[in-house]
Amino acid sequence: MAAVLRHRLGLEDKVRLSVYDDVDHRLFPGTRYTRATGIQLSHGREGYAFIATYEASEPRLTFSVIAPSPDCLASVPRVTIDNLADFGDWLLGARSANEAQQFRTSPVHRTGCPVRGN
Ligand SMILES: [Zn+2]
Questions:
Q1: Ligand 1 mean position to 41 CA, how many Å?
Q2: Residues with Cβ–ion distance below 5 A, ligand 1
Q3: Number of domains in the chain
Q4: Could you list the residue range(s) of the whole structural domain that residue 84 is in?
Q5: What is the 8-class DSSP label of residue 13?
Q6: How far apart are CA 87 and CA 65, in angstroms?
Q7: Has residue 98 been placed in a domain?
Q8: Which among 11, 16, 47, 92 is least surrounded, fewest beta carbons within 10 Å?
C-alpha cells in the first residue's frame, strides 16, 4: 500500500513511509473486521498521515489524508488524495479537494460533532 501511495504521489525515495493498522476505519466499507491501512509520510520535520481504503463505488484503492475535523478537531479522514496535484491542493488549502468518503462517518469525531452524520 505504501508503494502504491509512493507511486501515485511520485514521492522520492528519501520521503519515508511507514505503515500501521488503522483501528478506527475499515478497509472495505460496511465490514467490521478489516482494518484500514494507515500510512505515515515523513520528510524532515514534516509529517502527514493517510489511510488507504476501498470505496463502495469503485474497486480501487483510495488514499485520504488525516487532518483535524473542522468542528471537533479529532483527527479524521478529510480529503481524498489521488495524485500529487491533489496533495498539492491540500497543502495549499485549495477548495477544490474531494471530501473523503469516511469524513462524515468516521467514529473518531467527538460526541456531538456536527460533521458526523451530516
Ligand atoms: Zn468532528
A1: 23
A2: 69, 71-72, 109, 113, 115
A3: 1
A4: 2-92
A5: T
A6: 9
A7: no
A8: 92
CA distance 111 to 16: 34
**Does some domain include residue 108?**
no
Q: Grid coordinates in use for 24?
A: 478506527
CA of 63 from ligand 1 middle (Å) equals: 19
Residues 6+ apart with CB under 8 A from 18: 2, 39, 40, 42
Q: Which set of grid coordinates corresponds to residue 14?
A: 528519501
Q: Return the minimum-mean-pLDDT range out of 11-15, 19-23, 29-33, 81-85.
A: 29-33
Task: State the first-to-last Cα distance of the chain, in angstroms, to the nearest integer.
Answer: 30
Contacting residues for 26 by C-beta, under 8 A, at least 6 apart: 32, 34, 35, 36, 53
* Contact indicator for 51, 29 with CB cutoff of 8 Å: no
pLDDT tens-place string over residues 67-118:
999 999 999 999 999 999 999 999 998 777 789 989 999 999 999 999 987 6
Asked if the structure places residue 27 within a domain, the reply is: yes
